[in-house]
Give the backbone structure.
Amino acid sequence: MIVPLAASNDVHAASGPAKRHIVLVTGLSGAGRSTALRALEDQGYEAVDNLPLTLLSNLVLPSSAPAEARPLAIGIDARTRDFDVPALVAAVDRLVAEPGLDARLLYLDCEDETLARRFTETRRRHPLAADRPLADGIKSERRLLEPLRARADKVIDTSALAPHQLKALVQADFPLEAPQSLALSVVSFAYRNGLPREADLVFDVRFLANPHYRPDLKPLSGKDAAVAQFVERDPGFPAFFDGLADMIVALLPRFEAEGKSYLTVAVGCTGGRHRSVFVAERLAARLSQAGRRVTLLHRDLDRGTA
């Protein structure tokens, strides 16, 4: 479940002339590029998929574009004609340096096992596995694209995301209205399902009293008042939460000063249903009260009961 939370006040007003928004969407085959492009198109971007790299400058650069050119979302992956990772990294750097553009690179990642299942279910061929096993193609592409992942402004791991969840995340991270300088996401997760690979800060709340062992609370989630009250009664909760929220609020300007555009805060418990959900909900609300725009995702809410 993903909820964009509006800030209580807009502390980062837009200034200077408007720039043309450009989002280059790339990543592993099967990780959700088409879904991300549709999400951006629904948001108001003009979507172009599989654009040859040799045509990128002609389409994007201010000297080539019409005066009222729409924002662009461009899909590029290993199937693109004349695809070349170093050339694409260099092209991204050139676009970022253009004064009239707000150009960013979105990289979609995914676990190997999930990618293999998606290709098997759709019966599609992996572009790098024409005459090899599917697993070899996935591993080869991952190695090939690593420089793009390292260069990306935003990485989204789609392994546990439904299409509507990916759409909500993409639209929250790439708005067309004047955004804050730092796009902030809070994610709850289950340790049993692994760490969110996009997380910048990870906090473990498994030390808090666990509602899982109360028969009346086990079927509920951290979004329910009874679970919230149970966790709040843990003697260690108030000091922990106030310290956590104050620390993150104090760190955000420092991240912005370093030029960071996105920050993902992950909160984990055993099953990703009770404690982490409640803490993530409370943390997102506190950050919103501090004037931040926050996207809230409960990655494993429907996958576990602990």
Remarks:
- The first strand starts at residue 2 and ends at 5.
